[in-house]
């Protein structure tokens, strides 16, 4: 028979436990005390409120998970409403929290207080621990064997590996743990794990319940903090088969600012009130979101108490709705039907008796108030058996207006055109009637076939239709035409060709400064084109901007030997380096050059033909049988094919494919981009060089200059010294001097100056050794992608000045996004921010900016940096700006200091700099 003192002790313990539950206000409050569990202030949520802890800020990395568990009633705090997130959690408290998360507290408390346990725990935890043994969450043979610790089993700090095991068992994933036990550990500190732990830790990592640390370690023997424990349980929740009866999961069937109704998996719909205290999160990124982010039929996780929603989590934003869109033709109120015009077809839709009708902002409307001609979006809830429309959104009432903007897209099949409205900066899509008119810039009336993406227009809308469009400025449209040259006007302004594949003729105006390309001929001009040449014409707005001769090329002979010359017929016989002979004709237009001097053709014989066996070496450019240019060989340009620094011999592969071998003097200097006094040993096979030849002995090299062409990003400029500091695509830094404006090319501008080279822009620079030969300022396109056409291979980009450009990508392009490289146009999408440049080979490279939503902390004027508040992912918090960064609130451009503390913005980052900040 038990003593009277023992019975009194049991009654006292039971009373203390009952008192602690009463004080907490909820049977779900965690007991966090070290003894009886009565210490600490309850954090359990009461109706209409979720506990806020004074030491857990809204920016705390675990705020969502702590808030969620507090709403369910699993955790509580200490005095002064503190949660103490960095305190360690004991083994017994882990079990209490897990049992409550599983919704099994009632069953656990049915265990009698006299339960004999194989381990020592606090009285408040006994029924939970006993139930954990009964359920197999913990096993006697695992827990009762360790007697080395002087601390009671229940009060010991829970380790990370022990918690992983308990959680995996709680969610019924023991089989997964057994499978994962055979796999190697995902973490670098596997040797620190207990023999039994690998499978549980791997399983928890696979299910994304636990994560490692920055050193790729798991720290299995490390303590688990209260913040970590809340996070582990919150993440494991999705795998639970039983939950607290405070939790409802299902689809939103009704939503107002005061009520949410949820259809659960049992087919029951329950409603809960919403108040300003209701906390709403997004499961995707653990961020707080407004109620407006949740749509009908979204999947949600709701924690409720006494009919009130305390915590709502958007777990899947996919709407279970069928959507139809069109123009309202007629409303039949007595039959609850509407007639909707979609293209050329009219369709009747049946409406549900409780159909909800709102405008685009969510304000309620009546069915009778909708005007015919309104653009409607009809939604049918696929979760319901009835095939009726449950929601109507009036996207636009009949609209009549005149506006200006830019054409973003044209769909002739669906008879729709999309404009970027100039004043609002918003996209507007309208259908157009068959008889819509288009007025060209010269006043000519035409049709929609003349309308192009990128055109700047004025447009008139009547009853939501674009009835007339006036083109103010046509967009640049590029195309290519091939054919045979028929004639070229005397003033070289008009070119007529016979188009390929037929006998049709085409006449085209030639743009000023049009490029002429003949293979092998540098700086070709229109005077080098001949009737009968097969041409490829590149046109911009039907004007020739580039002519490429495809039927012939100018052949180059480098280092050829003169065999003989007939001055009467002006025939020159040469022997090429490969042993071939050729006879070519000089004409009055042949350029004869020695060094920098150009001589009359009549001087050729006296200057180039020497007596005896000394055969002069010359360079020739030949088109068919005609010599375009002849000059005394002074240098060889090409790539190093072979080099022997011991014998001072070098073989150079010329542009024309010849391999020429020379000897160098011991004193021959090699000038590199970063070194003036180099030697042959500094060169390697494949280097591009210019070797200067000794005119007295043309088999000897006097000096060598390394040639290099690269695309560089400008870091900063120094106008006083005309220095430009740049970096290449590999991050290598370089500084060079632009000593003359004549070395600067600025396409699209009639003048060129040092000031045109601007920070953050790209330049293409050519070097001869350490000397800058020329620098070309590249036209970089930065802006927002508005359309991607994979079929045509084009993207449409609205730049930061509001101009729209259609950019053909061609067959060779590279897209760089988040450290990866792609050649698939489908990796681009509308609203991407991009930077479009051309590399040294004229291949397009598209850099896609990284976008993220951030909260502003401050702007540092002295260093022109924006400071952002820290995130849970330890993202960078300070950013500099691109020189021409686009900073705006809505459509209004603002200065950097206009973004205030705690404002939420979207930043777009390229090369670790902000190129755009967007504040809605």
UniProtKB/TrEMBL annotation:
<protein>
    <submittedName>
        <fullName>SLH domain-containing protein</fullName>
    </submittedName>
</protein>
<dbReference type="InterPro" id="IPR051465">
    <property type="entry name" value="Cell_Envelope_Struct_Comp"/>
</dbReference>
<keyword id="KW-0732">Signal</keyword>
<feature type="signal peptide">
    <location>
        <begin position="1"/>
        <end position="29"/>
    </location>
</feature>
<dbReference type="Pfam" id="PF00395">
    <property type="entry name" value="SLH"/>
</dbReference>
<feature type="domain" description="SLH">
    <location>
        <begin position="49"/>
        <end position="112"/>
    </location>
</feature>
<feature type="domain" description="SLH">
    <location>
        <begin position="184"/>
        <end position="247"/>
    </location>
</feature>
<dbReference type="InterPro" id="IPR001119">
    <property type="entry name" value="SLH_dom"/>
</dbReference>
């Amino acid at each position: 028979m038990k003593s009277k003192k023992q019975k009194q002790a049991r009654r006292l313990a039971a009373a203390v436990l009952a008192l602690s539950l009463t004080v907490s206000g909820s049977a779900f409050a965690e007991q966090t005390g070290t003894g009886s569990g009565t210490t600490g202030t309850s954090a359990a949520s009461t109706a209409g409120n979720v506990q806020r802890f004074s030491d857990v800020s809204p920016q705390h990395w675990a705020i969502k998970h702590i808030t969620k568990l507090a709403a369910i009633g699993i955790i509580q705090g200490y005095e002064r409403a503190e949660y103490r997130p960095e305190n360690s959690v004991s083994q017994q408290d882990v079990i209490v929290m897990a049992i409550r998360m599983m919704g099994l507290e009632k069953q656990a408390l049915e265990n009698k207080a006299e339960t004999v346990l194989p381990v020592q725990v606090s009285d408040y935890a006994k029924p939970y621990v006993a139930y954990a043994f009964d359920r197999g969450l913990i096993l006697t043979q695992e827990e009762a064997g360790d007697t080395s610790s002087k601390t009671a089993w229940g009060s010991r700090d829970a380790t990370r590996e022990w918690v992983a095991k308990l959680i995996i068992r709680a969610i019924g994933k023991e089989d997964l743990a057994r499978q994962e036990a055979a796999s190697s550990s995902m973490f670098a500190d596997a040797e620190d794990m207990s023999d039994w732990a690998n499978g549980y830790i791997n399983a928890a990592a696979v299910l994304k319940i636990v994560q490692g640390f920055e050193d790729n370690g798991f720290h299995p023997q490390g303590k688990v903090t209260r913040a970590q424990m809340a996070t582990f349980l919150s993440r494991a929740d999705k795998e639970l088969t039983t939950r607290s009866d405070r939790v409802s999961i299902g689809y939103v069937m009704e939503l107002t600012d005061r009520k949410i109704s949820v259809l659960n998996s049992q087919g029951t719909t329950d409603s809960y009130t919403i108040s300003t205290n209701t906390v709403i999160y997004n499961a995707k990124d653990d961020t707080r979101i407004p109620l407006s982010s949740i749509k009908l039929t979204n999947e949600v996780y709701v924690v409720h108490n006494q009919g009130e929603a305390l915590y709502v989590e958007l777990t899947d934003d996919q709407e279970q709705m069928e959507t139809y869109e069109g123009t309202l033709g007629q409303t039949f109120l007595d039959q609850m039907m509407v007639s909707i015009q979609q293209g050329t077809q009219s369709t009747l839709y049946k409406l549900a008796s409780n159909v909800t009708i709102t405008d685009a902002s969510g304000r309620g409307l009546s069915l009778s108030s909708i005007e015919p001609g309104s653009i409607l979006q009809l939604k049918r809830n696929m979760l319901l058996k009835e095939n009726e429309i449950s929601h109507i959104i009036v996207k636009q009432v009949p609209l009549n207006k005149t506006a200006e903007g830019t054409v973003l897209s044209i769909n002739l099949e669906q008879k729709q055109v999309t404009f970027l409205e100039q004043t609002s900066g918003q996209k507007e899509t309208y259908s157009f009637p068959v008889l819509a008119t288009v007025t060209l810039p010269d006043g000519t009336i035409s049709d929609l076939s003349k309308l192009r993406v990128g055109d700047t227009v004025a447009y008139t809308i009547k009853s939501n239709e674009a009835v007339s469009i006036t083109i103010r400025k046509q967009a640049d449209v590029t195309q290519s035409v091939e054919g045979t040259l028929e004639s070229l006007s005397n003033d070289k302004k008009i070119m007529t060709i016979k188009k390929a594949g037929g006998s049709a003729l085409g006449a085209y105006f030639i743009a000023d400064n049009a490029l002429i390309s003949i293979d092998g001929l540098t700086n070709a001009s229109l005077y080098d084109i001949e009737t009968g040449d097969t041409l490829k014409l590149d046109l911009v707005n039907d004007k020739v901007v580039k002519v490429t001769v495809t039927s012939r090329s100018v052949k180059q002979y480098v280092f050829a030997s003169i065999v003989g010359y007939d001055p009467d017929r002006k025939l020159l016989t040469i022997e090429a380096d490969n042993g071939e002979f050729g006879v070519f004709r000089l004409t009055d237009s042949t350029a004869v050059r020695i060094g920098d001097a150009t001589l009359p053709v009549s001087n050729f014989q006296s200057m180039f033909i020497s007596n005896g066996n000394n055969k002069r070496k010359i360079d020739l450019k030949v088109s068919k049988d005609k010599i375009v240019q002849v000059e005394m060989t002074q240098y060889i340009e090409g790539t190093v094919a072979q080099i022997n620094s011991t014998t001072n011999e070098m073989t150079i592969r010329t542009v024309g494919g010849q391999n020429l071998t020379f000897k160098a003097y011991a004193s021959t200097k090699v000038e590199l981009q970063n070194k003036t006094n180099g030697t042959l040993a500094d060169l390697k096979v494949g280097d591009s060089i210019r070797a200067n030849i000794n005119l007295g002995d043309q088999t000897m090299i006097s000096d060598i200059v390394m040639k290099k062409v690269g695309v560089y990003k400008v870091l900063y400029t120094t106008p006083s010294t005309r220095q430009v500091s740049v970096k290449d695509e590999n991050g290598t830094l370089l500084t060079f001097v632009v000593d003359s404006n004549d070395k600067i090319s600025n396409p699209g501008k009639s003048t060129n100056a040092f000031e045109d080279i601007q920070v953050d822009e790209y330049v293409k620079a050519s070097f001869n050794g350490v000397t800058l030969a020329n620098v070309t300022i590249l036209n970089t396109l930065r802006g927002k992608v508005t359309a991607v056409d994979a079929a045509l291979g084009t993207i449409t980009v609205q730049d930061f000045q509001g101009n729209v450009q259609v950019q053909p990508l061609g067959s060779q392009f590279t897209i760089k996004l988040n450290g990866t490289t792609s050649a698939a146009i489908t990796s681009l999408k509308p609203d991407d921010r991009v930077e479009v440049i051309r590399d040294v080979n004229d291949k397009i490279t598209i850099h896609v900016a990284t976008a993220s939503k951030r909260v502003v902390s401050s702007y540092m004027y002295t260093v022109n940096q924006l400071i952002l508040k820290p995130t849970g992912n330890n993202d960078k918090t300070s950013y500099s700006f691109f020189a021409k960064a686009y900073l705006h609130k809505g459509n209004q451009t603002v200065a950097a200091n206009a973004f205030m503390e705690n404002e939420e913005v979207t930043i777009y980052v390229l090369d670790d700099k902000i190129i755009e900040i967007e504040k809605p």
